[in-house]
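Open question from group meeting: does this chain pack into something compact, or does most of it stay loose? Before anyone orders reagents, we agreed to write out a predicted structure and look at it together. Recording both the input and the output here so the notebook holds the full record.
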Amino acid sequence: MLRLRVYFAFLLITVCFSGRSQVIQSLSGLIIDVSSREPLPYATVSIEGTSLGTTSNMDGYFSFVSIPSDTCSLQIQYMGYETLTFPISEFLKLDRPVIQMKVSSQMLNEVVVTGSNLDRQMIKASGQLSRVSLSPKALAAIPSMGEQDIFRALQLLPGVSGTNEASSGLYVRGGTPDQNLILLDGFTVYHVDHFYGFFSAFNPNAIKDVQLYKGGFESKYGGRLSSVMELTGKSGNQTRLAGGLGIGAISANAYLEIPLGRKLNFFVAGRRSYTDIIKSSVYNNIFDLYNDANAQTTVPQNQNQGIQRRQGNRQTQQEVTEPSFFFYDLNSKLTFRPSDKDVVSLSVYNGVDDLDNSRTTSNSFERNNGDTINIASDIDDVLKWGNIGSSIRWARQWNDRYYSHVNIGYSNYFSDRNRLTSIEIGRSDTTILRSFGTVESNDLRDYSLAIGNEYILNQSHTLNFGTQITYNDISYQYNLNDTIQLIDNRNDGTLFTLYLQDSWKPQKDLTITGGLRGSYFDVTESTFFEPRLSASYELNDRVRLSGAWGHYYQFVNRIVREDVTQGSRDFWLLADDNQSPISFSRHLIGGIAYEIPNWLLNIEFFDKTLEGISEFSLRFTANPNNEGQFFFEGTGVARGLEVLLQKKDGNLKGWVSYTLSEVVHDIDGISDNPFYALHDSRHEINVVSTYELGKWIFGATWVYGTGKPYTAPYGEYQITTLDGTDYEFISVGAKNAFRLPDYHRLDLSVNYKIRLGQGEGNIGLSLFNFYDRTNIWYKEFLIEEEEVIETGVNLIGLTPNLNLSIKF
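Structure tokens returned:
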């Protein structure tokens, strides 16, 4: 019988006595992986026979106070690990505060190891309102486009749009990706797209735990309107050298876990695409924008879907492009544990995308008078973007009641794009040369200090309090034709924040959490207060009611720059209540959950009001209130209903989710009437299932969403730039008045587990968009010589992908 060392520390005031009711005043411990000794964050810890429960924090620590002694078992659950049940009396024999968990089914002395519905779950959606946990270990079971992807898995949840195939960013409950606070080991990541948005910037091999708060989040989080995603990076194996290799259709990756002594260990993971060397079928499918079906359907036959003809017998032409592209990312983490109560870590991340979309195109057509016009264009289009981030973190469990951490973080997002076009227009008797284009540069730097504390006052009250200081330095330049400067914006500012929160349990079935977050923003010299309130009530052991309300402010905004001819381009600015307003959101959420051991039915509704929505457009005369710039401000509302039905256990498991929602914006100057946002989709359905058969795992996902809005042109107009030059632009119809066709696709996968000596591996095959549905991404329009050139840009069709991963 395998011996499992189980260590547990606690302060015992009184103990369990047979036939007598006593109280253990406090109980605390650290939960780690038995093999790697890596801490397990957000594990569920409960006292059997009572309503008492808690979760371990980011460093794996948990605490209880005032434990009744007649409750003599402690249950610990963590996704991907077997459930452990400990008789409390056994803890008297232990001399160290560590509980080790293992993915194994064994009976070990007085510790009972059992199967549970958390053992192999991909997500955990129960426990807290609007909170979902994701297990990166289980991602291999979900079909993928070419890479296992954390953000793609989250897009399959209710309330998170799953039809944004060309963006790995999360559109949560009507919000946009910039309204999500993305934290990796305590520092903020501002841009999450790899490969033009088809993959996310996070390597699953480098991430240990993922927590998504879809709304109503606590007072310790701020600076965003929509949601919070907290990612905990792996710290690595503390006992022996370990690692892994993987290769897929797009990239190759590797990671190493290196113990550097009993108290120090190092983790490093790297990933790089080889798309600049080998053009795989996945790569070709992503950038094969004009297949045969698109050639037949690019020009719709009715006004609601596009434009077929313009004045003067105009015709439409198409452009074909195949970019040269690669990306890489690197994660590393050094962890030092000077004592059983302290953890010090240094985390570093760097990810870069390099895209060269330069191309040469040619079009020709015959006019009514018999003249032939040839149009040749040379487009220089180079884009490079990326993130650099790091944090130094010290956390300490001072005693059974008090835990604190200090985090110093740095983050830098940059994006540089040059798009310059030279056009030669040839007629029978003349040749005209024209040059135009844009040059953009966006640079965002974030320096932060955060101090957080958790104090368990008693069995009924747990206090969280702390302070955060964030300094931002952001610049954005936008030049026309490499000479005319339309925007030259550089601002810096500091946000000072204090927060306090009390989680109160007035009775065993009711939990009320109230908090207040106060911030001072030196750019506007204004103070902002953000009250938060949530409650959960357990009607019985199966039904739980919950609700949340709160105010949220955002001081760094991603501005939408509408470009009808090239799709939307966005950039970051620091809020200044002029060009970029301080944005605000109010959350109102209610939910009911019905849960039995193998099934969960969760229903939530949300209502979100938005203020300070910004958009930048060259389609309109400059707003006189914005000092001649083309910035427009407005309000919005997002509301909806989410339904999740999850089968949590068994060989066949998964979930079905449905989201009914609408997202409406009202921006004066952009539209005379409220309009649906670009990411609005009335109905979305996700079906996710996996089936385990021995060493085989079969997976399937089906995604459906109603079509998103877009704006279509109907003519052309002239605009005079700052130097007095006249340029022709497309004149467009009502804002987002038309809808793209509905989106749907089916993805399939099969994975086979293999043994390689002391290591293990996985061979997988995915079939993305199995029935080869033609889904439209967006439409491009170009006008030359009174001819409108329209391009329907399609998303990828059927795409097979083979992948191999090895762990040692």
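Observations to bring back to the group:
The CA atoms of residues 361 and 754 lie 49 Å apart.
The chain has three helices and 49 strands.
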